[in-house]
Amino acid sequence: MNNVKAHILFFLSLIVLCACNSGEHPIVNYTPQEEALAVAETDTNLYFKTYDTQNGLISSELFNTYTDRQGYVWISTGKGIIRFDGQSFTPFFDNIEKKVRLLGPTSFFEDSEGTLWIFSGGGYLHWFSREENQINSFSTQLENGWSDEKTMNMLQDNDDTFWIGGYGGIQKVNKTSKKVEVFPIQKIRTMNWPHEEKVRFEIIKKDKAGTLWLGTRKFGLVKYDPAKNRYDFLRDRPKFQNYLLDDWVTDIEVDEDSSFWISDFERGLVHFDPISENILDFIELEKLLASPYKVAVRDLLREGNLLWIATNYHGLILFDLRTKKVVRHYHRDNSELPMNKIMSLNRDFQGNYWLAGSELVIASSSFYKFKTVSLPENRPAYALASTENGVLCSSNNGLFSISDDGKSKNMLVTDKVSYFGLFEDRKKQLWAGGSFANYVFSPDLSTTIKNYPYDIVVDSVGNYLRKALRITEDSEGRIWIIDNWNRLKYIDPDNNVIKNIFALAQDPVSKKFIQTTAILDDPKHKRLLVGTDMGLLTISYQDLSLEWQKNSLQQQEAVDYLYRDKKGGIWGILASHIFQIDPDNLELSPFSFKDRGANETYNWIVEEPLNTYWIQSSLGIVKYKDSSSTVYENHNFSEGSFNKPAPVITHNGKVYYGGDEGVSIIDPALLKIDRMEPKVNLSYLKFPYLDKESRAFDTTFYRGNNTLIELDHYQNRIHLKFDGLHYKEPENNLIKYKLLGYDKEFSFIKNGLEANYTNLNPGAYTLVYAAANSDGIWSEESTFEIKIHPPWYQTWWARVIYVLLAIAAIYAWIRYRVFLKLEKYKATEEIRTTISADLHDDVGSLLAGLSMKSELMAMGVKEIESESLLKISEMAREAMERMRDTVWAIDSRKDKYENLTDRMRSFADQNLPEKGFKYHFILEGLEAKSFISPLIRQNLYLILKEAITNIVKHSDGDEVEIKLKKVNDDLNLNIKDNGRKKDKLPTDGLGLSNMKARARKIGGSLQVFYNEGFSLNLQLKC
Fold it and tell me: Is the pTM of the predicted complex or chain greater than 0.85?
């Protein structure tokens, strides 16, 4: 808890630290209480991880490190610069065409807008484009300077301008206008050095008065007044000559009171007041370290009241600025720090320290590694036992004791004797399976209490006792042994009984020899649990009877390991996978990790402390607690039968396990969960696609600061690369992602792998993603918008065109059909016109001639013959009249309402007045020139004729009203006279039937009434 408090205090400064380069460490203000707490409770017990050229570094000549605000680590080297994401190193080299020069020492600086500036030791200024993933040059005036071991600094003055050091002066750069002002300086170094030389400015700091303080090589500390453009060299003052701050100033850190802590390469650590320009204190680090040679400070990093010091010869020093004492000192001889020369020191946002030297080193108190104790001559460990003498380990050259401090001590050695299985019984005696006998030693191993040689017969068929590989004791005092033939035996030392479980030797069905692999005492049920290569079985205490567990196929899998946890639960590893076993009925329940792959295999499991499980897997040592797992590296393991002994737990809660490299120690008390969230970046998107010629293309989009990408429709195959930046165990970082609009659930991948989407439909998507560190701590979810444009033929305007084309096509089709109908109608009209003309001209003239001749003949014949001839004449007239009606009906020139009404009016005028009827012809709603169907026209006229004929023949009235009315599409014909009501209605003759038939033919309804004379009403649609 105390460490957590201290970390919280220090993490307050990290956000500011990340915005500055390794030479730009900001002022961090603490209250005195906070500072005291920080000094007292900071965990400075660092563990180190090393990267070199075998891990991907392009050079072993390293100068500087820097962590940008996205979480990437940048390293300057002798061959170029590198960006590190925890998984891989991305190099950037010189590009002469683009004027990019990155060789040698390089300083990094991230301005207030997030632009990363890169200033090479040769005096070349660059900036990094995150969108293009490339470095671009920025022209300055002091280029082509000489390069050395120390990088030159940069200092931001305001949003647009910053200062950069250089060889021959300092420069003020306006990044917006790209204007560069140079303030050159040349100076004579000493009176014994007569010619002037350029001054190399490496460090730039500003005091609260706005004055710039410059650290140089060879010329010490320099004061520069920007308003007056005046340099003031402190070495020119008598009190500084040949003393402090007059030669090489390597770094400056600002204290909370605005004073400076300055590293003088030759002298040590100087406390300086820039206002009074006085030295407040001088720390001779050589004396504090009792070193016969100078410390040579390279870099400083201040954290509250503590100062980290990177040195040229003495590694890493932690110095307390209040007590003026060295708190910690890490070097190659007392730690895993691989080098004593540290060129630069930087701290990232997670609190890790990055050291540059001959190798790249990351240090943190959370980087605890399991300690592995090697046995003499690098012998493997065969078995372990926790005893009063500590943890004992068997090997092929005796027994060894492993102490708490991680040292091995030879406890018992006999020439050419190997020891395998180990077990401490309830009497504190040690059982050991040796090369020539199974031994029982006294607790202090000074006395051999008993030995069981291998010539002891253990069954009726003459099998002998053999060396023990696995040993355990049941609650009744029997010692159970799995020998080197994987046979199960037991020794009852109280009754001097030794027996082989012969029933377990061979399967009676398959005749296969059974391999016993694991044993676990089960005193609650008075039985022994036994694992074999053919499944799980029990052996009863009472009669040693066997009972195979074959209720499920899983119980018949090969059993590799059995374990009882602190609550009495039983765990088993069957076929390399973990199962929980019900202690009562031995039913198996598969156990799986929600955050681990299904293809991992497992070897053993142990609990320490309560509810914390340590599991050896094919990928390392897994710590499992509260439904989450953490993986730690594990190289001390072999698949050999002797080389994977079960772990043991000591009285102080440490877990020991053995393997090829000796004995490894897990101390749960030292393991820390790193609760710092990882940084998560969507680093790039790739869109592989094929063109029409099937040529492959692969376009890469680097996200940079963009929040949206718009793609063409053929870029619908996307490969996404995420970087989960957390450096504790970066290979175990986890990424989750989901594409809203496509995915329903999150997908999970290991850090460094790509996520793939194929055949995405056009549309808008939102990518949601987050990362978890190796301790299962998740970052907040980030989002990124992806918009895939449809092809032109799927755009809205294309759809509008499609609709318009469809409408045009339908319209053209309708027009075509109308055209066909019109053409057909015109052809029909021509035929009708021709027929009507032919009927009128040919048949009409013939009937007229026939009628005239009949009349002339009637004048000159007898009376009876005259009547016959007149009858013929009348019939000819009637036929001619009907022919005229037919001609009129089929004449296409008469298809208008005015033709119908004229014809109707003409018929009424010819027939009604002659018979003494007055008539009224009424028209309503008709357009005379409007078209009327020939069929309707003909039948309306014929119905009118029939109606008038009936009136003339049967009506007792003298007036007739004919009314033709049209409303919209409704047409009504009403014909009525003024006759009286008739008691006897006329029969429905042929005329009425004809009229109704004609009405039905044209889709109308006809009603005839005789209530008050004759009345006809016809309604139809036209």
Answer: no
